[in-house]
Amino acid sequence: MIIDCHGHYTTSPKSLEDWRNRQIAALNNPTASPKISDLIISDDELKESIAVNQLKKMQERGSDLTIFSPRASFMAHHIGDFNTSSTWSSICNELCYRISQLFPDNFIGAAMLPQSPGIDPKTCIPELERCVKEYGFVGINLNPDPSGGHWKEPPLSDRHWYPIYEKMVEYDIPAMIHVSTSCNACFHTTGAHYLNADTTAFMQCLTADLFKDFPTLKFVIPHGGGAVPYHWGRFRGLAQELKKPLLKDHLLNNIFFDTCVYHQPGIDLLTKVIPVDNILFASEMIGAVKGIDPETGFYYDDTKRYIEATQNLSVAEKHQVYEGNARRVYPRLDAALKAKGL
Ligand SMILES: [Zn+2]
Fold it and tell me: Which CATH superfamily is domain 3-339 in?
């Protein structure tokens, strides 16, 4: 089985975006705010939006199951207040849940949280609990910067975030550390802010001792870990200066990287530098980079091709990247598969 740990619902019917635009337009006039019940998307519309997009590409490319979360750039936690985010996340999570019910063999949910800048993360717990207990979601997306590129929250190692971590440990779910739209003109959302955040999250963990407090806490750092694998020597050297343990002991029991790197040399580097136990297959399809690479003739985000072609992994190690590691990092996914005899 090939598990893609990083997919978003980027192909929702236009009515979702229209509802969100009405919500944003009414921020200063709450009486004009749309109701949740104003948004009606039928099962047929949901099916259509997936069948000709993500599911079609999964079948063409040979992946089986995607851990599916709301569209990351649409989370936009910086917009409005907690209530804005709360209503919006509940709508988006429910759509992912319905998709996981319509295509139970192909999609399983991960939750967007109703984060809001300056608001205590413990306000996210009810939605997190609902998604795990009622929807059977197997992970969450945690935004380390709900201000959208202005980095106003404390680092991930700060006690500020502990209520979320306590719940993650209790439920045995990992968090993908995933920012949303940048509202800082200096940072392009998917080309800079996402990769900056991946690198930043890793460094925040490196300088701290978060995993001493939470030995079983798990973070998936997406987009191949941002700059981390490429600069592994820098990070090792910085850890040494800070008298931290070796990175394999300090961070690699808790931090994992996905394979959303869109060219062969990038995957070759990732699989050479980062231990195979810490690499999870993913494509983030259909995401930021939708085009066809003229050098290869294949889609940039057809990441399975790069795993297949790399010389750094044996057949058994590829199986680990495709399936084994995901089942270890997402125990609730493993349990759901086992319950189906898989
Ligand atoms: Zn993503």
Answer: Metal-dependent hydrolases (3.20.20.140)
